[in-house]
Amino acid sequence: MADAGDEAPQLTCKFVTKLPEEFRVPQAALPFDFLINGELLRGTIQQQLASQGASVEVVTEIEYLPLQLPPTPGPSVPQDDWIASLVATGSAGGAYYSGSYDRCVRTVEGGEVVRTFQAGPKPVKALVRVPGLGLVTGDGDGRVALWSPEAVAGAEAPATRAATLQAGGEEVAALAFSPVSGLVAAGGWAKGIRLWASEAVERAQEAAAEAPEVSKKRRGTKGAAADAVVETEVETQAVLTGHSGAVSALDWTAEGRLLSGSWDHSARLWDAATESQLDSFSLGKVVYAVACAQEGPDLLAVAGADLAIRLWDPRASGEEAAPLRLRGHQHWVAGLAWHPERAHLLASVSLDGTACLWDARAAIPLHTLNPTSGKLLALAWSGDELAVGGEGKQVHTFTL
């Protein structure tokens, strides 16, 4: 009988299977994240359970899910001035409109600028795409205008406005469109939030297109004809009042409610149909950015001059109504954007020059991106691609 301490023969084995690909163990390791009672694990399991007040008499379920890996840097597209606003064009493959301090709108596609046109006499501070109608711009001169899809495409013809929503006034700082209500919202230094129905915008667009050619021209100082547009404003459906400071940010919820942020230190939730305020939330400092989750929980993100990003659930009450604070930026937060399809995934940009990716179930960022040494002012998602821009005069892209 062999001694128990003797070594057994060493054999080489290899596991194989004839199962379909989806049931096979992958060749490369799969990194996972872990979720405990609705919160991502950050630290040890013991620390997290203690912070949650878990009971030893209850079995705690720990859910594992794929880890969100760092995004891959893509092309950086140079422009001529600071970038104040970004919005996806809606086309596949990652394409964006950028609004700039040089008064121009640019179409960025395939890693290059394919179209540039001047949108007004002042910096283009806000952009929003209205599917089927075109691009709406808001500038420092108070003008809110619609440009047809042809005007912002990679065409050589001069761009002309398809309709004018607001011919001038106080600076426009924010625009938002709701596919649910069909409303375009604009806010800025006038403090009120103006609303227009997309049907009215479409009628004005058609009227401008059908106007006699002579009415689309104005005479120059020496009698030369100059390009112009019929300056008939689209009828305003409503003006929401309540903010005592400039309205700096707007976004619509998936249900068609409007979220606004202001220099009066508040974020407010509105029912546009009844023109009434539903709720409000005070940050104590200027609000520069708001964003409404379109997938998953009905979360509202609010941020500004106090550095932290607050996640606010308008359905919660009591202690649950206290917002979750996300901390990671070292300067004012200038922009927020939820991923269009991935629940819980939020992006932010800051004057500290960084962009952060967040999971709403954790208070610290998933990843911090450093594309530039200058301030970041704008961001937009196009599918799984994130574009950011600002003082560095470039549109930087990252792909999940």
From TrEMBL:
Keyword presence, Repeat: yes
UniProt-listed Gene3D superfamilies: YVTN repeat-like/Quinoprotein amine dehydrogenase (2.130.10.10)
Keyword terms of this UniProt record: Repeat, WD repeat
InterPro entries the UniProt entry points to: Quinoprotein_ADH-like_sf, WD40/YVTN_repeat-like_dom_sf, WD40_PAC1, WD40_rpt
PROSITE patterns: WD_REPEATS_2, WD_REPEATS_REGION
Keyword flag rRNA processing: no
A Pfam family: WD40
Residue ranges of WD repeats: 240-280, 326-368
Protein name: Ribosome biogenesis protein WDR12 homolog
Species name: Prototheca wickerhamii
